[in-house]
Structure formats: C-alpha cells, structure tokens
Amino acid sequence: MVRITVGGERREIRENTTVEELLSIENVEMPEYVSVSVNEAFILREDFASRTLKDGDEVEFLYYMGGGAA
C-alpha cells in the first residue's frame, strides 16, 4: 500500500495507482473539467493514465470556476 494525501486528507491506495484511477476511486465529479496537481506540480491530462502515485505524494483536484461581471 502507498500512503498519499488527497485534498489534505490521508489515504491509502494500492501501489502503481495512476492519477486517472485516483479520479475514479475518489468519485471526482466531472473529471473532464478537473486539473490535478501532485506535489504542487500540474499533471498534463494526457499523462493521467500513465502518471503513477508514490508514497508521500500530495494530490489536489482543482476545478475551473467560470463567471463574469454584468
């Protein structure tokens, strides 16, 4: 097992879990609109399926929030 932090909370996941798999494990809503950072570095969407998480990684899910002024 690997210990990571997701959004400030400790998690245990199996070794070789990818960012893409973590999105599913965490039931992230609208994963097509989420940006992911690992250890404060953004992961490219095309790398989600290949980027594996390692012991001690800190993961954040960031959502674009649109809006505007009238």
How would you portray this structure in words?
By secondary structure, this protein is mainly β. It has a single domain (2-63), classed as Beta-grasp domain (Ubiquitin-like (UB roll)), CATH 3.10.20. It is 10% helix and 34% strand. The protein is built from one helix and five strands. The protein has a five-stranded mixed sheet with strand order 2-1-5-3-4, with no helix packed on it. The radius of gyration is 13 Å and the shape is elongated.
Total strands: the figure is: 5
Number of helices: 1
Number of domains: 1
Order of secondary-structure elements: EEHEEE
Helix content: 10-25%
Mean pLDDT: 93
Beta strand %: 25-35%
Characterize the largest beta sheet: strand count, sense, and whether it forms a barrel: 5 strands, mixed
Q: What is the CA-atom radius of gyration, in angstroms?
A: 13 Å
What is the fourth-level CATH superfamily? Beta-grasp domain
Shape: elongated
Give me the CATH architecture, please.
Answer: Roll
Low-confidence stretches: none
